[in-house]
Fold:
Amino acid sequence: MSGTRAARNFVDGAWAEHDGALIDVVNPATGQVVAQVADTPAEEVDRAVRAAARAFAEWRFSNPTVRADLLHRLADEVAAREVELGRSVTVEMGKPLGEARGEVRKLALALHFYAEEATRVRGSIVANTEEGFTSLVEHEPIGVVGAITPWNYPLELIGWKLGASVAAGCTIVVKPSEYTPTAGLLLMECVEAAGFPAGVVNLVTGAGATGAALTQHPVVDKIAFTGSGRTGAAIARSVPNVKPMSMELGGNCPLVVTANADVAAAVKGALRRAFRNAGQICIAINRAYVHDSVHDEFVAGLVAGAQQLVVADGLEQPDADVGPVTNQEILDRSLAHVRDAVDHGARVACGGEAPAGAGPGLFLSPTVLVDCDQEMLVMHAETFGPVLGVSRYSDLDDALQRANSTDAGLAAYAYTQDLGEAFTLRKRLDFGNVAVNNVDAGIINAPYGGRKGSGYGYEHAREGMDGYLQIKHTRLRHGA
Ligand code: ADP
Structure:
């Protein structure tokens, strides 16, 4: 176990040693405890929030070029520690090292992106009805941000919030997932090395109670949450005073493959977006609606591709395709969704169990279920594991109706080479992100956010920063 240095928080620009209750961090590929981190009590959360509030008094007026320089420096620190940061992600959440290093590189890009956005906050001058008056509209930072993040992208999901809020002139207290806290702690070493003023960026580890102490803290001005719908709703109910919130909640994302699709491309896209990160992505494809005329070809390609994916401990095999799922809850739910589908008439075309010789970890082979109908859990409840349900359709209206029929509104995918169909699908899919003939809707310079039960607010792009800014209108009488 390498965890003795992990039981600490980054508060007010310094490492605060913690000698209270600890939380075990477990490697899902081996079942071994790899670190112990602080189960931070409310008093320490309070200290972090107050440090962030003190720092905000100056940081809010800091020159945007200063913020930009610090964020660029942080991105460079992150890039320089790619292997170490990547390993920390692999050992605590399971994604193969190659993929984890990719997450670190994307984190560095996001930080560079927001470094540049810091200098591009603009206002406007608005016409007045009377001579001698000018209206100025400016964007000002909101204040102290309380950020709560999940375990599936332990670094990027902190980075989007940290980059956008700090660029906007806010200060931040992060509470990472209890499953993946050490990656966040390492990121704070990068923050320290980059030289941010004390209190601008803080991180406390802990579980739900630590998160609740942060989100319920009256001095927090804005809550940025990514996680389950259940926890998001609990937070929204519990905040003591009115404050802005952004909620990136679960998905349950459909893929529509029409009669006019390039089937090989659709198979490739489905394999990537259903099984990458072991399906533990809010924008993972959970359910596919495939036209009768291409259904069998699609399923044959999908099954052949899924069976070729290498499932392994991603530290030992850094280029494996699929690691273990991160915790028992995910494995149990994935298997429950498979069982439910089979009980209601679906067939397991591949997967459905741990691969042979997988060892003690939480492994599940990429699983394809065919002959699914909308009542099955896999077709309407987020699995968040490597399971994909496939259903046929003969009429595009019916496929669209089923695709839109769940509470989820985060992302949807479609494959068609017919331009008219592409536009119909784009228009009628009721989701915040729609990818047509590709499966990578999430790019840093376009806004990313959900609708319906998938939450509200945006990350990425300029819109991601807008969530940390508030408008001030000044009407100035200066005389004609
Ligand atoms: P996931 O399983 O997708 O990570 P959760 O919603 O369980 O989703 O957890 C997301 C984050 O929310 C984690 O950092 C977790 O510790 C935190 N959390 C859990 N319960 C609460 C709560 N009541 N208030 C604030 N944060 C919470």
Observations:
- The pocket of adenosine-5'-diphosphate is lined by residues 148-151, 175, 177-178, 207-208, 211-212, 215, 227-228, 231, 234-235 (CB under 6 Å).
- The longest helix spans residues 97-118.
